[in-house]
Design brief:
31% helix; 23% strand; 6 strands
Length: 120
């Protein structure tokens, strides 16, 4: 993507613990599949940038997918919401996270967290 250009995207938000597990899972795949990730100031939630239109069919319990003005947000150099920061800032490619891979990673993360909580 050319410097200064911004690809449109939607935003999937999840609880931070599940999101951090999902980031690790996505980074361990054969072709790392995680794009820019935001965190809120309190680190309660993480936000994954995904392709525009993802919100239309997103229905994963415990998460939300949002569009802005029905057209998605764009990947900015600076975090788009006051009080947030980049966990993983936009890289050279400015790619977004594949929603199908994110869905699988979030499911696996939920199972890992459930198993860990049962052991404590």
């Amino acid at each position: 993507m050319a410097e200064g250009a911004a690809a449109p995207c939607d935003l999937v938000t999840v609880p931070a613990r599940q999101g951090l597990e999902a980031v690790d899972i996505l980074r361990r795949t054969a072709a790392p599949a995680v794009g820019p990730v935001l965190h809120d100031g309190a680190c309660d939630t993480l936000g994954f940038l995904v392709p525009p239109g993802t919100a239309d069919g997103w229905d994963l319990p415990g998460s939300a997918c949002t569009q802005t003005s029905g057209r998605g947000v764009r990947i900015p150099a600076e975090p788009p919401v006051r009080g947030t920061g980049w966990l993983l800032p936009p890289g050279d490619a400015d790619r977004v996270t594949d929603p199908a891979m994110l869905r699988r990673a979030l499911g696996e993360a939920a199972r890992i967290i459930e198993a860990a909580d049962k052991c404590s």
